[in-house]
Amino acid sequence: MGKKTVERGLFELFERDAEMADELVFGRRTGADRRGFLKGAGLASMGAMLGASIPFHRNMPSGFIPVALADVAKVEGKDGLQLVNDKPLNAETPPHLLDDAITPTARHFIRNNGNPPENTDPANWTITIDGEVEKPLKLSIADLKKDFDVVEQAMVIECAGNGRSFFDPPVSGGQWTYGAVGCSKWTGVRLADVLKAAGVKKSAIYTGHEGADTHLSGDEKKKTLSRGLPIEKAMDPNTLIAFEQNGGALHIDNGAPVRLVASGYPGSCSQKWLTRVWVRDKVHDGAKMTGSSYRVPNRPVEPGEKVEDKDYVIIGEMPVKSLITSPMTRSSPSSREIDVRGHAWSGAHEVVEVAVSYDFGQTWQKAELDKPVNPFAWQNWRTKITLPQAGYYEIWARATNDQGVSQPHMIVWNPKGYLNNAMHRVAVTVS
Ligand SMILES: Nc1nc2c(c(=O)[nH]1)N[C@H]1C(S)=C(S)[C@@H](COP(=O)(O)O)O[C@H]1N2
Ligand SMILES: [Mo]
């Protein structure tokens, strides 16, 4: 951690966290068209809209939009998502709207790096499988359905940058709070079955994925994002080529008509608008595979410290995490007996315990925890707490996985703001 951060101590970090969460839910909601203006707005105009000066404005990355001025994203087929960025479209789901066991399509977050393709007619779509294979394939969606086992499973997709807005000092990139995560039901075929049909050569060690989205600049030669998977993860029977979301079509911004779902890895590995799986004999080097993209230093670093390229590692499995979806933060439940519930997940591992605290971590109460409905689904949990007297409380949740690994109190700072799995905290007042 940076010196400054350590000196400020635990509670100051926490305070910022709680404030940002509160503003996310209760912040002023302005018209979507103000957003473009906001991105270019000077300090004085932002201050005027907030009704206050911004003492720490020097810590705000360029293009940063104060969460108190965030908008509800007006996207057809989506419900209540908060806009994180408009170009490319990034929108997250406030925790209390993620209460369902399975995330409805309308509430699945959106993380686009470019513009979705214009023509997404499933009848004309093809996916090419080539590279280190015996027999390259070109498959339509009808071919996928006809030639391979069709399976359906609930799986978590979480952006590696979820929680980035809580980094201190701040880092550039989408200022996600809690809601760049969802667990929809995905129907499709196993990527492994398709790769086996193509005949994976011994030389294969990685996949490289391509999608039909276009670069924001309009330059057709530029790729938005092309990530890949270690061959073992690509061959995992739970890695799917999915053509249905919750029993219907995929939402256009979730990759219609067809996408990869490689749950347990950063969301970026789940290529949307999938057109090609290129099997490679080296680690894929497509757009956002190198540099500091989806990579973290192999050791804790000071903010601002220079990290050599060889000291970066590609993010693999995502960490253990949980979310409190009820009560909603900064609410005032009518009783001191409160039903607390949410979800927990941990890469490829099972969560074995979720505990809840309402006394700032002094004591913990175990929640009732469901088994995952299938591998890579999040696990629902619930418990009832009885707050001892009137006043302000924070409800904290902490998940522990089957390796004995729990969520931390604090973020391990890294240059791009990835992998924040600090405990979720929700504020309530009771009388
Ligand atoms: N083709 C393509 N696939 C993509 C992306 C993208 O910009 N283009 N974004 C990735 C990232 S960074 C994430 S976190 C997930 C988000 O999936 P969602 O938008 O369906 O929630 O999609 C991934 N797949
Ligand atoms: Mo992401």
UniProtKB/TrEMBL annotation:
Spell out the InterPro entries in the cross-references: Ig_E-set (IPR014756), MoCF_OxRdtse_dimer (IPR005066), Mopterin_OxRdtase_euk (IPR008335), OxRdtase_Mopterin-bd_dom (IPR000572), OxRdtase_Mopterin-bd_sf (IPR036374), TAT_signal (IPR006311)
Segments forming domain Oxidoreductase molybdopterin-binding: 116-286
Q: Which residues form a coiled coil?
A: none
- GO molecular function term, any single one: heme binding
Q: Which UniProt key words apply to this protein?
A: Metal-binding, Molybdenum, Oxidoreductase
Query: In what residue span(s) does the Moybdenum cofactor oxidoreductase dimerisation domain sit?
Result: 314-430
Gene3D superfamilies (alphabetical): 2.60.40.650, Oxidoreductase, molybdopterin-binding domain
| Matches recorded under Pfam families | Mo-co_dimer, Oxidored_molyb
Q: Specify the protein name.
A: Tat (Twin-arginine translocation) pathway signal sequence domain protein
